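Kindly go through the entry underneath: sequence plus fold tokens. Please state briefly how this chain folds according to its tokens.
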Amino acid sequence: SDGGVEANECITIYLVSSKDEVGASDAARITPIDLNSFFEEDGKIYGYQGLSITIWVSSISFQAYADISYKSTSDGGKGVTDLKSALQQFVEQNIFGETLLDSKDDFLQTFSSDGNYIRSIISSGEVLQHPLTNGHDGASTLSGKATSDLEVVRMVMDNPDAGSLYSRLVPLVLLLVDGSNPIDVTDSGWELYVLTQKKDLEHEDVQSRLLGFSAIYRFYHYPDSTRLRLGQILVLPPYQSKGHGRHLLEVIHNVAISEDVYDFTVEEPLDAFQHVRTCLDVQRLLGFEPIKEALNSTVLYLKQGRLSKKTHVPRFVPPSSAAEDVRRVLKINKTQLTQCWEILIYLSLDPIDKYVDDFEMIVSHRAKEEILGKDGGSGGKQVIEVPSEYKEDMSFVMFKTKDGKPSSVELDEDQTKQQEEQLKQLVDERLNVIKSVAQKVQLQV
């Protein structure tokens, strides 16, 4: 019988910027999140022997060509997968047709014929200023100069060019952004922020190169404001780890401030993006006067003595007045400010080695509060695993205690130990993130 072949095993994808790179051994290979999810229910392709699929995606026109080879086909009981139909699930455009070209010659021709594609399609958009160049008060603090050849253009989705461009980018979004779905290009609430390099020095016939983009949704906020929410952000693999994501984020922050939106939020941020975002926000917060005052008060309290000797450990959260000032001026929402707060404390405790035990207690206390509730267990929620014939890891009961009184349900020794291990793991992970962001910010100051 036909065991099939996994898509991950037989498909390779390359992002190429010239016809010379097509087939070259040093072409930039894309590492997708998971190709199996695009093929049938079990991620396998059936009916082919010796199957090899190479997909070339142009970083000039964002069209693609699939080179498919195999020794033979036969129905081994599971049928023969329709490759063209299956491939189009992740290389076709969302609404405006197909990016997958049938002819390799046609694909190679696009590198010379479409050198002006990006410059032409973004010409109907609005060029946005980087905060470093317009000196807007409250904008981000930067280390180093913004590169003059970078440009961010905003295109609103009621512009057909914006929908057409995004549709060509959909395959890369699906391949490279975990858990993503294409945005609705018919919804004018979406805005596309496109980061480009104005002149491609490597290829004289390419007038503008797309380095990355972000899709932002603009919500109405009563009574007369709007909110910005980042839905997707992607810097193309060859241009990652060069500060381009930060540059794009800084421009979006500047828009939020200059247009005086209510706040700026992010939909389910991935860890790598959240790290860049937090580094940027911590740097902005360190120079913000209301936060300086709140931090000084917190640090003075911590320097008075060891927390372990106190009968009650206070909640170390930013004051509500400072949180409101941060939202109003910097457009950072309360959830993100809370994420940054412990990092700000860490950076303010100098030397940190002297206060490291107390700081770890702060982190542990907040983590415990999140797991067990504000009273450290007796007054919050608890999750108890129960025996079941269903899935073992899905079987539990969650309950609340009444009136702050201890519950009659008690954790046994193993469950208590498991809970302590989970807490320790959470605290260790959080401390690693705090130290990593703090180190990055200190290098940039």
